[in-house]
Amino acid sequence: MVTKWFRENVWAAAAITFVRVYLGWLWLDAGWHKLTGGFDATGFLKGAIAKPVADHATQAVLFPNYTYFIEHFALPNVKLINFLIPVGETLIGIGLIVGGLVATAAFFGIMLNLMFVFAGTVSTNPWLLTLGFLVFMAGANAGRFGLDYYLMPLIRKGWTKIRAGHGKTDNTDHRGIGGKIVPH
């Protein structure tokens, strides 16, 4: 009942719009500073490898697969990471502020925050994760007062057209014995 209200109510949409714009500003600000300030993730990645998140009692690495990913993919491809992080943060911020593809922007914001936390950076990431989760859970209602109001019907229409072109819509009567509809 609460989820339905959160995803469909106009007052919930108004409230989540403020959260969405605030969160978008935080992402846009972080991305813009990285874009214009000569961002280089090399030191961060080396630090995440040298001192991974570990259990205080046993010193066992908590996210060994992520540390492996950083060491064997992210660090060797740091030029790609140096491009993706600032551009991604900026696009997430823009999407959230203008209300375009809000659920997608919130999802990728959540993913970036999780990656930063797994690398050992707490900072504002739990706060951003919480806000991102609220926006993501609001679904299409989060973009009701934004570009999604106009964009989502176009996307649905295009998606329906694509599915129809690939034979995904089937209007055939699937009645079995006794006239009951049976799945195909």
Walkthrough of the structure:
The protein has 184 residues and is an all-alpha fold. It has one domain. Helix content is 67%, strand content 0%. It contains eight helices and no strands. The chain has helices at residues 2-8, 10-36, 42-50, 64-74, 78-98, 102-118, 125-138, 148-165. Helix 2 packs across helix 7 and helix 5 crosses helix 6 (102-118). The protein is globular, with a radius of gyration of 21 Å. The two termini are 32 Å apart. The model has no long low-confidence stretch (mean pLDDT 90). It is found in: Membrane. It comes from Cohnella terricola. One of its GO terms (cellular component) is membrane. It is a multi-pass membrane protein. Keywords: Membrane, Transmembrane, Transmembrane helix.
User: Any idea how many domains?
Assistant: 1
What share of residues is helical?
55-70%
Strand content: under 5%
Helix-strand pattern:
HHHHHHHH
Class of secondary structure makeup: mainly alpha
* CA radius of gyration: 21 Å
How many individual helices?
A: 8
Query: What composes the largest sheet?
Result: none
Low-pLDDT segments: none
The coarse overall form would be globular
- Total strands: 0
| CA distance, first residue to last residue | 32 Å
Mean pLDDT: 90
Membrane topology: Multi-pass membrane protein
GO cellular component, one term: membrane
Organism: Cohnella terricola
Keywords: Membrane, Transmembrane, Transmembrane helix
Short account of what is shown:
67% of the residues lie in helices and 0% in strands. With 184 residues, it is mostly helical. It has one domain (2-167).
